């Protein structure tokens, strides 16, 4: 009996120090209509918030594309280096409360990030009211 209790506490103790899932790192964005990889996004933390920027384009149509459709401070900025995920916070099993920018049309949407069945697939959802679009990004190891 004491052996079983000790084993239980040992297993519990080991699992309590496993790292929690984190969205931080590099992700390959996958186009939801073609299934092809489009870019590499680096997700990072700054001042307790989550951000993501484009660090590489896969098969770009032009050498140094700029965000022609973006508004405000992002207008005509290079797409490589552009911060597209802004100000998300962890809320139980999702990251939300911030926005995501679509550099193709320059529009900004509310954003939610959530892991799929494993921590190598990230559900990225941009939404406006009840309308949303979801992509699945793959972690780069």
From TrEMBL:
Protein origin, superkingdom: Bacteria
Pfam families xrefs: DUF2147
Domain DUF2147: residue ranges: 25-139
Regions crossing the membrane: none
PANTHER family found in the cross-reference section: BLL5882 PROTEIN, BLR1215 PROTEIN
Protein name: DUF2147 domain-containing protein
Organism of provenance: Winogradskyella endarachnes
